[in-house]
Each structure stands twice: as structure tokens, then as C-alpha cells.
Amino acid sequence: MPKRSKRSTKSTHARTSSSAPVARAAGTTLRSYAVGALPILNDILQRMRLEEFLRDCLPPEDRRTKLSPTKALLVLLRNLLVSREPIYGVGEWAARHAPDLLGLATVDMDRLNDDCVGRALDRLFLADVPSLVLSVAAHAVKEFGVVGRIAQRFDHRLFLRRLHRRRDGATILGTAHAGHHLRSQ
């Protein structure tokens, strides 16, 4: 069997531990990151104040936590909305994107892995999720001017559940039987 010659490891296009393509020339380093829809998505998430709501809702962080569960959950959400990589691939997916677009510092990129995301999901499981959803939904209604309707089948009657904005600006959750007026709960 013929011997294979060793290739030179001094390539101008090398990969770093972060999986982002790197080019080096004349003492200068250029890293290339994916951007995609993240700037638009980040604007929406910022307007929703999702990071703030998550931070307030999640149980206190464990001292051993290297990356905030809030940040890990937001990276997972961005992943689900942009590319739907499995949990074990979130760290590798994130490494291809600019850290600041994921709400992370460069040092946080190495801390993001499937164990970190799993622990963050555990923290979310311990949180008061119904209160979180209600807070985020109420804020989204106010921020984006959204009025949501959800048809729900209950006891063979059709009820409409909707967030209703009164003239004074207050948002109320109401239930109405099909064909009847909204009554507050």
C-alpha cells in the first residue's frame, strides 16, 4: 500500500475551535460568520422583552452555571426559528454565527453545548411557565398591537378566547360563546 504524503498544516484557510472559517494573511486574521435572519429576529425578540421576562421567571441560577440559562434558552429559540438543529448540534450551529448576534460574548461560545442547553431547559421546567406565557403575550399585544383569537372546543360549545383592548387601553381576557358578546372573566 503506498504511503500518503503529509499535507502542510500551514493553510491560509484554517478553522478555529469556534468552527468559523478563518483567513490569515500578513499578520491579519479575518473570521467569517453567518448572519442570516438573526438581526431581524433579534429586533423582534428585543421588542418582546423576552430576555427580561425569562430572567424574571426562571429560578435563581446555580453557582456552577457557566452560561446563563436565559442566554442558552434564547440561543435555542433562535436556533429553532432559523435552522432547527437538534439540541446536540446547537453549540456547533452557534459557532458558525457571530456571537453578538446570539446575545453572547466570545468566551460564552465555548460554554454553549447540549449539556448547557439541557440544564437551561430544566430551569425552564421549574419556572412558572403559564405566568411567563401570559406576560409575554400581554406585552406582545401591547407592543405589536396584536389581537389574538383562539378557537377552543369545550363541552361541545365553541368559545372564542381573545385578548381585548378596552377604550381606556387596558387589556382584558374574555370569553364569548359563538354569536354572543364578549364578557370579561
Mean pLDDT: 77
* N/C terminus separation: 81 Å
Per DSSP, the total helix count is: 7
Give helix % range.
Answer: 25-40%
* Strand portion: 15-25%
Domain count: 2
Low-pLDDT segments: 7-17, 149-162, 176-185
Number of E-state strands:
7
Supply Rg: 23 Å
What is the strand arrangement across the widest sheet?
4-5-6-7
The largest sheet, given as strand count, sense and whether it forms a barrel, is: 4 strands, antiparallel
| Form type | globular
What is the element string, with H for helices and E for strands?
A: EEEHHHHHHHEEEE
How is this structure best described in words?
- This protein is 39% helix and 19% strand.
- With 185 residues, it is of the alpha+beta class.
- The chain folds into 2 domains: 38-134, no CATH class; 147-184, no CATH class.
- The chain is globular and about 65 Å long.
Keywords, please?
2 domains; 185 residues; 7 strands; 19% strand; alpha+beta
